[in-house]
Specification:
This protein is an all-alpha fold. Helices cover 84% and strands 0% of the residues. The chain contains 16 helices and no strands. 49% of the residues are buried.
């Protein structure tokens, strides 16, 4: 069973990794892409934004489609579309075409993210789902560590065009894995009707579900902190603390390992400690870590203090990511695709808000970063208290009233 789970996790992790590879692989090639198209840095930045928008908005489409038509068919079509758009990016005739194709490429890649999570919900529940998601998270987090390096290597031995040819070949590999390795996990009788009113009703039901939205917001807000970290630390480490690019790469990789460490902790604790208690541990660590980050910024503390605080924050993300997914998805089996889409889209939407704010005071100030990352953890705690805990209290009170009513009638 463990070997099967590992093989299955590797398969799904490959689809989850498509997002980071799509966004990160061409980062080192941006100056060459700008020179090739004879355009401005802002237009090249727009191509990155387009791929992120595609990844975020695409999930809201791909999730419901997988609830209607099953997991396998939308995934297969999306991977074929990914091959075509990746190849199209390599030979785009203009920067406008390149940006448009990047958006579609991101939307196609989003199917890997949202449908892989929906497949997990189809096959697992409870402690088994928690353990499997933590294993999947641990494997998937390797992708952001290696994708920028892989992109720079491909660019070094070929060109920026070679990066997108590589992504096209990666899409071809995933298409084959979908065709031969992915079995349908959503029976026909469990699929939702293919009409607009049902889809709108499903999303409306999810947004009105206090407990689901509580866990989704906690997940999204803390991942907005991750986006702030990714956007802010290159300048903070190098401009403020004078760290070399090579040392920055090492520090960045260590924080990636911290996320893996956190997800491994979830895997070890699952079944021994309740999911809710693990979640609260992760939330507490996140709050303490972000408070320490803000304190380090305010006191102009040493690099060691900043690194240790960020490392602990990364550990908390590794804990909260898989456990919040489990708690949010537990009761959403009938529309796991749509629920998975909401979880994923919130991460990108809130991250898109947080990232630009980090640089609002210039590249030599860490103050916005410290404030934003602390606020994300503070808001996540508020979301949990207002939505999840209050929902549990309301449910408990209603049960008590029904019991008393039944007792009186007897």
């Amino acid at each position: 069973m463990k070997n099967y789970s590992l093989r299955f996790a590797l398969l799904l992790a490959a689809f989850s990794a498509l997002g980071p590879f799509t966004v990160d692989m061409y980062l080192s090639s941006l100056p060459k892409v700008m020179d090739f198209f004879g355009t401005t840095a802002s237009m090249i930045q727009a191509s990155l934004t387009a791929s992120l928008l595609g990844l975020g908005l695409g999930q809201m489409i791909m999730g419901p489609l997988s609830d209607i038509y099953g997991r396998r068919l939308p995934l297969l079509i999306s991977m074929i579309l990914y091959i075509l758009t990746s190849y199209g990016c390599a030979y785009a005739p203009s920067i406008e075409w390149f940006i448009a194709l990047r958006f579609i490429q991101g939307a196609a890649a989003s199917a890997g993210l949202v449908i892989s999570r929906a497949i997990v919900r189809d096959r697992y529940s409870g402690v088994e789902m928690t353990k499997f998601i933590s294993l999947l998270t641990m494997i998937s987090n390797v992708a952001p560590l290696i994708s920028p390096t892989a992109g720079s290597m491909v660019d070094y031995y070929s060109s920026w065009v070679g990066v997108f040819i590589f992504l096209s070949l990666l899409g071809l590999l995933l298409t084959g894995m979908t065709f031969w390795g992915v079995k349908e996990s959503l029976p026909v009788q469990q699929r939702v009707p293919s009409n607009l009113s049902t889809l709108i009703g499903n999303y409306n039901g999810l947004f009105r579900n206090r407990s689901f939205m509580g866990y989704a917001l906690v997940n999204g807000l803390l991942f907005a902190g991750v986006f702030a970290y990714v956007a802010g630390t290159p300048f903070i480490y190098q401009n403020i603390y004078g760290v070399s690019p090579q040392m920055f790469s090492i520090l960045f990789a260590l924080n990636g390992l911290a996320i893996i460490l956190g997800s491994q902790c979830v895997k070890l604790l699952a079944g021994r400690v309740t999911e809710r208690r693990i979640f609260l541990i992760g939330l507490s660590v996140a709050f303490i870590a972000t408070a320490a980050i803000l304190l380090t910024v305010l006191t102009h503390g040493p690099l060691s203090g900043m690194f240790i605080s960020i490392f602990l924050f990364a550990v908390s993300i590794g804990i909260i990511g898989p456990i919040s997914f489990t708690l949010a998805m537990e009761s959403q089996g009938h529309m796991a695709g749509s629920a998975s889409a909401v979880l994923g889209t919130l991460q990108f939407a809130l991250g898109a808000v947080a990232s630009p704010l980090v640089g609002i005071a210039g590249e030599n100030s860490a103050m916005p970063f410290g404030i934003i990352i602390f606020v994300t953890s503070l808001l996540s705690i508020i979301s949990y208290i207002v939505l999840v805990q209050r929902d549990k209290k309301i449910t408990s009170d209603n049960k008590g009233k029904r019991i008393r009513t039944n007792s009186d009638s007897m």
